[in-house]
Amino acid sequence: MAGDTTTESQTAIVDTAAEHGVGFPPFDATTFASQLLWLAITFGIFYWIMKNVAMPRIAGILEDRKDRIAGDLSEANRLKDETDAAIAAYEQALAEARNKAHSIAHDTRAKLKAEQEARREKAETELNEKLQAAEAQIAGIKTEALSQIGDIAGDTTSALVEQLIGKAPTKTDLTKALKSAMD
Known about the structure:
Elements: H1 2-20, H2 32-165, H3 171-182
């Protein structure tokens, strides 16, 4: 029975094929003209849709991407220029700071040198004053000592003469003898 069903369905297929003609319909030569007509109409519609709808959208997308890329490039160039300007300003500020540091160091060195020179001159002046005071004091002591030498020499000579002769010399004889010995 199952075999009967299979044979019946095969018979139905063969009958249907006989009614419609044999073979695959697109390869039927009698329908080529209508198929070509519909191919041309379908191609025209798809061409019109592509030309008027799809291509403008694609062109718009491409134009937007082109504009965005150009904008990004100009922004990158602007940021690069700003970076270059910032680097140049930094380098200039660094150079100015170095120059300022050098000038401050130079000024400080000059100021310290001037202060040291002033202290040295002040010390030299004080030393010269002390030296002059010491020389004056020495001269005073020398003068005083020299003035007392005459008295000491006179006293010593008088004592010596008195011990040698037994009699003290007179003041005038003593002064005369001292003057002749000191000259």
